[in-house]
Amino acid sequence: MKELLTIDDISVSYGNIKALKQVSMHVNEGDVVCLIGANGSGKSTLLKSIMGQEPLDSGSITFDGEEICRAKNAGAKQGKRSKILTTDLIAAKGISLVPEGRRVFADMTVEENLDMGAFLVRDDALIAERKESMYDFFPILGARRRQKTRSLSGGEQQMMAIARALMSGPRLILLDEPGLGLAPLVIADIFEKIALINQQDKVTVFLVEQNARMALRASSEGYVMENGRIVLSDASSTLLENERVREAYLGE
Amino acid sequence: MGIAEFFQHLMNGLTLGGIYALIALGYTMVYGILKFINFAHGDILMAGAYVGLFVFDGLRGDAPLGTWTLIAFFLAMLISMGFSAVLGMTIERVAYKPLRGANRLAPLLSAIGVSFILSNSAAWAFGTHSRKFNYPFDNTPVHIGEVVITPHQILILSVSLIMMIILKLFVDKTRMGKAMRATSLDQGTAMLMGINVNRVISMTFAIGSALAAVGGILIALDFKVYATMGTMTGLKAFVAAVVGGIGNISGAMFGGILLGLLETFGVAIFGIPTGLKDTIAFGVLILILLIKPEGLFGKVEKEKV
């Protein structure tokens, strides 16, 4: 299977604090891959790094065979100029991030939010078509398309954030804690949608979650992060049986 | 106060307010995105007025008032808008962008510096005397009942109204306009959408500066063109933007009109001496800040978690 996203030995720090330490991982095309770990273990930092929102101290990130992020000094020795794509250009490559806390444009309507998701799509007919399919996929968004997003419930906002991320027609969608602060039934609904996005729309999914059980059940491959380091990686079904995972993340 | 007198003041207030509103938009749009007050905005207005004046005089030559002078006037306005847009974008690129990551005071001081550079350069190049911006039409007042309206006032009202409608449509309906709103709401997330934030910022300066040029030309018809003409007008337009809720486009329009009306009626009703007219704006500013610090249309900003 083809490696769509490759993270090669990256480190990121905030001042003196090392948030990511030599993290390497990969996401195969067509898969659902999850990254679990406690609050503050570095999961969100990893997703931000992929989108070029955190400068790398070392290592590089490759998407579809093309290097999208590289540490500033890396390659300097070989005489290469450092090449760091800005976030908007990384998005244009076909990666969409659903950020932690949803980050909807609260003062804009649902429809306008979706329009922003399709900012890079220049074909009006295609945008209209995608909006309609989002309203079919998330009927509640169709019903509220003219409402300001701030009036939506948390679960609805999460669905809108996912729909917005899909509007660009990405090949890879990154989800940062899609279940955060939502009721169990709503979370189940959202995970069902994520599975459909992967199976029907063939979008590769990289999911970051604190809710380890949901995440491992929804994915085929899993990584476990502790203190900025990948400590375990395996098939998700194997991780669900792993003693360390069961004890630390599944509360068993 | 009779009905006629009321309408007279209303008309005067609306025209003054329309100009304030046009200029206030530039402050508010830039603030909405960069959380920064462009104190050189008033001087861009002055530069726009000079360009408008020179182009208009050049195009007009010795032609008598007529259709050609009107066409020349609007051509001059367009050229001045273009010039000011480029000037605004250049100032942003040279004096503000390099300071974007710095302490919040740094770009503010840079803006004040740019303001002095522009007004001093204008004084050096064009002299300190004020120049008359000739009316492109016969400005003989028209009497409607007892109300006296000058063609100049009609020009101000219609031009500022058209500009504001165009801006509102742009911001609400177009792809780049929506991208501008998205950027002002959440810059990081806007980038995730593939929006090039630097381009949005340049565009914001261009639009704000072009509107300031229009405001500068409209006000120059009554108050002449001189190097420091942007200082007081710019400051008052800034007050209008704060009163309306800085960062909010409708708020700036409303704040501008409100300030124009307050100044006019303040003198007329409360008998505030004309010499103290300028204090009204700042009095209102203090009052609004005390009662509703976020401005009339502003939202209380929550700290991001």
Sheet with most strands of chain B? 2 strands, antiparallel
Can you count the beta strands of chain A? 10
Largest interface, C-beta closer than 8 angstroms, per-chain residues: A-B, 24 and 18 residues
Strand content of chain A: 25-35%
CATH superfamily of chain A, by name, is: P-loop containing nucleotide triphosphate hydrolases
Through-space gap between termini of chain A: 34 Å
Q: What is the global morphology of chain A?
A: globular
- Stretches of chain A where pLDDT is under 50 for at least 5 consecutive residues are none
- Provide the residue-averaged pLDDT of chain A: 91
Write down the secondary-structure element order of chain A: EEEHEEHEHHHHEHEHEEHH
Structural class of chain B: mainly alpha
Number of strands of chain B: 2
Key features?
heterodimer; A: 252 residues; alpha/beta; Rossmann fold; 6-stranded mixed sheet; 4-stranded antiparallel sheet; 10 helices; 10 strands; 37% helix; B: 305 residues; mainly alpha; two-stranded antiparallel ribbon; 2 strands; 2% strand; globular
How does the SSE layout of this entry go?
The complex is a heterodimer of chains A (252) and B (305).
Chain A: E1 3-14, E2 17-28, E3 32-37, H1 43-50, E4 58-63, E5 66-70, H2 87-92, E6 95-98, H3 110-117, H4 124-137, H5 139-143, H6 154-166, E7 172-176, H7 184-201, E8 204-209, H8 212-218, E9 221-226, E10 229-235, H9 236-241, H10 243-249
Chain B: H1 3-34, H2 41-60, H3 67-96, H4 105-126, E1 142-144, E2 147-149, H5 151-173, H6 175-185, H7 187-192, H8 197-223, H9 229-244, H10 249-269, H11 277-291
Antiparallel strand pairs in B: 1-2
Helix pairs in contact in B: 1-5, 1-6, 1-8, 1-9, 1-10, 2-3, 2-4, 2-8, 2-9, 3-8, 5-6, 5-8, 6-8, 9-10, 9-11, 10-11
Keywords (chain A): Amino-acid transport, ATP-binding, Nucleotide-binding, Transport
GO biological process, one term (chain A): L-amino acid transport
Domain ABC transporter (chain A): 5-252
